[in-house]
Structures are given as C-alpha cells and as structure tokens.
Amino acid sequence: MNAVHIVGNRRLVGDVKVNGSKNACLPILAASLLTDEVCIIHNVPKLSDIDTMLEIFKAIGVDFSYVGHHTLKVQARNISWEVPGALVKKMRASICLMGALLGRLRRVVIPKPGGCVIGDRPFDLHIKGFKALGYEISEKDGVWILDEKHLHGATICLCGPRGSTMTGTINVIMAAIGIRGQTIIESAAVEPEVVNFCQYLTNMGAKIDGIGTSTLTIYGGNFLHGCEYTIIGDRMEAGTFVCAGLITGGNIRISGLELGLLDSFLCHLKRTGANVFQSVDGTIYVQSDKPLAAIDVITGPHPGFPTDLQAQLCTLLTQSNGNSVITENIYPNRFMYVAELKKMGANIKHRGPCVHVKGPCPLKGAHLIATDLRAGAALYLAGLCATGDTFVHDVFHLDRGYEALESKLQMLGAKIERIRID
Residue ranges per domain, the chain? Predict the structure, then answer.
C-alpha cells in the first residue's frame, strides 16, 4: 500500500506549472463520442481518473492513443451503448457517458457511478433532464437503462437544493445535441469547466447560445465533426499550490492557469491579507511575508467559493490569527479530514455544515488517512507546515486529481516522498 512521508517545516520557493483540468478533461473526453471523426485533445493530465475513462473507452470500442505526453487522439467509430459496471463505479465523472451515448446512439445501459465519498450527490437532475427530452428510463439492480421514446427539444430547469449541477448541465447538453430542435437549459452551471466544454462542442460544429451564462440554448440535430482543442489549466491544482506557498511561508510562482479562473478563491485570500496576485498572462505570484487574518467562507456554485478548495483553505486557516468559520453548502460530508487535522493538534470544531477554526495553531506530524481527493491535498498541506514527520495513507485518492504532486513539491523544496507500506 502506498503512503507519503513528509518532513515538514520547510519553506517552498520556486516555479511550478499546473496541468490540464481534470474536471474539464473528463467531460470533453466523453463529448468526443458524439462524432465518429478524429478528435485531438491537448493538455490532458496524467491522472488515474483519466486512465479509468480510457479503460471505459477501450471496453466500449473507442480508439485512442497518446500522440504527445499530454495529447490524446480519440476516434469513436463503432461503439457500444452498454458501459461496464466495474469501471464506472471507480469515478463519478463516468456519469457524463450517459449524455454522450444518448447524444450519439440514443440509448445507454450504465450502472450508477462511484467516486469520492463526500456526501450525497444525487443524479435526479440528470434524470429530470433526460425525461424532459423524451427518453424512457428504467432502473434494475443499480443499472440505468435509457432508450429513446418521443425525443424533442425542451425547456429544462436544472436548479437543485444546492444550486446548479455541473455534470447535469453537461449531460443534458450532450443528450440535446442529438435531438432536432431547440433545448433551453435554465439555471445551467457556469463553471469555467462548463464553458471550456461548450467551446469544445462548438469547435465540433454544435450550435450553443449563452455560453458562460445560466441560460443555454442548444440547437440540436447538427452534424458534429472532429476537432483539435486544448484543455484549460486546473484551477483546483493551482489553488492547492497557492495554499502550499502560504502555509510554508514560501515564495512561489504558479503558471499554466488562464487569467480569471481562480478569482473567487484569490479574492477570499486577499481578505486574509495574503500577498497573492495573478498577472495578465495568468501567472500567480505567492509571497508569504506576513501573518494571515481569520475569515469566514461559504462554499457555493461558481462564481462562489469552490468546494474543491474548501479543505485546503481550512488547513491554511489553522495558521491564521483569529477564529474562522467555513460553511459547506455543496457536499455535506466534506469535513472528514477534520478528524485527521485534529490528530496533529489543530483547534477545529465541526458543527453541522460548519467548521470553526481557531489559529494560529502549531501542527505536529502524525499518521493520517486521506479519505478523498481534496481531503488528501489538505493533509499534504498540513504535513508541509508541521514539525516532525507526517505519513499520509491511502494516497491513491490524490492520483485521481493531481499529476506528479510529490515531484512538483520536491522541486519547490519540500521533503516529501512516496513510500511502500506492507
């Protein structure tokens, strides 16, 4: 079993480049099934989730190959509408195959997907959208069967109790692409990854109005062709490195992210007094030269504070001056890392959807369990600033969303290595 050993209390200095966005790449790979022509996708991150998607591609008959270190060539000529269950259950993003296969074949048989255990993430809005488009849906033993019945464009509201749904928006767009007529999605997600996805589809020949807004109009039934496209940088990886620089008292520069993708996160950090800014070329400069102040944060759909950076911020706030409160409005079980931070001496209290953080609080190395992807990143940050040795177990979660994370931290001066524990 793999674990990571971190010797903390070392200042990070230097340059680091983020890879392509996992949350943008997976839907774009799925959208490549909407055509039988060749698609060339650049800036594909090397992650276990990407490997899982490619395993699914192989199982359903998609041809693909790497034609560069981060460039994939994909062609879906003769593909199956039945998706294997063992692979789908490895990650939640495999749900995007529903919309892609409906848009291309108008039928799909797929088990409910898996992924990180961070709380109830229902698929009811996806199903609502498919039904509105005229698909007949049944479920047996945890497997969905969707088939065309009376397909037509529709007006669909995708607002749920926790706001808009990113994967639901993406799924309904792809399903609507294959149906003649006009479909309007109200309360559509506006995350940068959704914008990147829609731009990819327009490059393939799709006609979509309102990209970047909460109301999308899809004109379906158009022929889609292959194209060449570049994935945006990963804003969650960039935000994690920002926190790493600040929590270690470091001085780092982060490249590979487009301007504006991390605005909400950086605005919250400026409230702490952090010396962080992004230049016009997208480079983020982090210089930790003064103590940070406590802040209150509420997560929410874009352009709100991203839930995928909540755990990392909480760890950073253990080193700020005062009492901070973080309210999680997206995924209710996203505080499982709190118990691990408390092992290190963090002064954190978990109450319902909130955590109360009192700082600054010195952290001491300990043996920790990464319960999910972003929780694992938070524990790495804690280990980087702690005194003594920290061991993070179950780090396979981090391989789902961070490419070569230990190597990048080593280049910045961290003493960190992956070890084998039997």
Answer: 2-18+234-420, 22-230
Please tell me if the domain spanning 2-18+234-420 has the same topology as the one spanning 22-230: yes
Q: How far apart are CA 118 and CA 165, in angstroms?
A: 16
Range 2-18+234-420 classified under CATH 3.65.10.10? yes
Q: How many CB atoms are located within 10 Å of the residue 24 CB?
A: 24
Please give the backbone phi and psi of residue 54, each rounded to the nearest 5 degrees, phi first: -70, -30
Please report, in tens digits, the pLDDT of each residue of the chain (422 residues total): 789 999 999 999 999 999 999 999 999 999 999 999 999 999 999 999 999 999 999 999 999 999 999 999 999 999 999 998 888 877 877 899 999 999 999 999 998 876 554 444 568 899 999 999 999 999 888 899 999 999 999 999 999 877 789 999 999 999 999 999 999 999 999 999 999 999 999 999 999 999 999 999 999 999 999 999 999 999 999 999 999 999 999 999 999 999 999 999 999 999 999 999 999 999 999 999 889 999 999 999 999 999 999 999 999 999 999 999 999 999 878 999 999 999 999 999 999 999 999 999 999 999 999 999 999 999 999 999 999 999 999 999 999 999 999 999 999 999 999 998 87
CB count in 10 Å sphere of residue 160: 15
**Phi and psi torsions of 381, nearest 5°:** -60, -45
Q: How far is CA 362 from CA 218, 347, 354, 374, in A?
A: 53, 9, 22, 22
Cis peptide before 192 (omega within 30 of 0): no
Residue closest to 241 by CA, chosen among 13, 7, 399: 13
> Looking at the domain 22-230, which fold is it?
UDP-n-acetylglucosamine1-carboxyvinyl-transferase; Chain (3.65.10)
Residues annotated catalytic, as ranges:
116
Percent of residues in the chain assigned helix, strand, coil, to nearest 5: 35, 30, 35
Q: 374: part of which helix (H) or strand (E)?
A: helix 373-385
Range list of β-strands (E), 198-315: 207-209, 215-220, 228-230, 251-255, 275-278, 284-287, 296-298
Please classify residue 176 by burial: count the beta carbons closer than 10 Å to its beta carbon, then call 0-12 exposed, 13-18 middle and 19+ buried. Answer: buried
